[in-house]
Amino acid sequence: MRPQRVPDDAISADEIGIETARLGDFILRSAFQPVYQRKAGGLVAAHAEGFLRPFRDGTPMPPRPYLASLPAGERAFAERLAAALHLGNYRHFDLQGLDCIIGVGSSRGFAEDIAKLLDRVELPVDRITSTFRNLAAFDFETIPDIVRTLRGHGLRIALGGIAGEPPPLDLIRTVAPDLVRIDGLWFRRVAESEGASRLLPRLVEGFQADGAQVLIEGIETRRQLSAALDAGADLYQGFLLSAPQLAGTATDAAEIEFSEMFAGEAKVIPLFGGRR
Known about the structure:
single chain, alpha/beta, TIM Barrel, eight-stranded mixed barrel, 11 helices, 24% strand, globular, Cyclic-di-GMP_PDE-like, EAL_dom, EAL domain-containing protein
């Protein structure tokens, strides 16, 4: 059965234009989290990634358990609603001038319907990245076809991994994404091990040599940020830097100065990336 398309009346907007959707007993909202890049002596926001926030009777529910609880067809519809909301609410994110990252739905129909969803945003299509955020939800054999369809519409491609695991090298070689995401759970485990963390620069350099940028996500402590900087990643994301905020919420995401972040620590920050 083909998943439902997003009907024009599935989404409503409040008096200032912030959009929400209702699916059964749940209200679906957009939250955005900045993704940072290095600039001189600190980090500056470069992208805003959209995340689904389901609410039931005013109480938020984690998005992955919510999506996992839905039948396949309803989940595909919820994923389309989420992408539509993020693209529609992007203009209500407090930081302006950032590129946008949206999650790819796990059904093939998502890619086929992306043209209609792109009508909801004024951002040039080459500034939108479609990310495979949770590979465990996908049939790996279908991903190359989905990628070809998305690229045919001009979207950039980001490929993550399965939670707690390293990036899937074979799939990355096949897809050749524009952006490789290093899973936060796996990264944090590696970053806390001095021996294992020494392997990160080589991993990052390998992806960059193949033409991809590298995003390290899930950064929660200064030690983890230090490991990500030493690895020479291109982009950085995590609660240490900024938490996701609902669309329309004031966001405090000014430039992060290394001198303040590492104040009181004997930390030398490489000027041009990690150890080469």
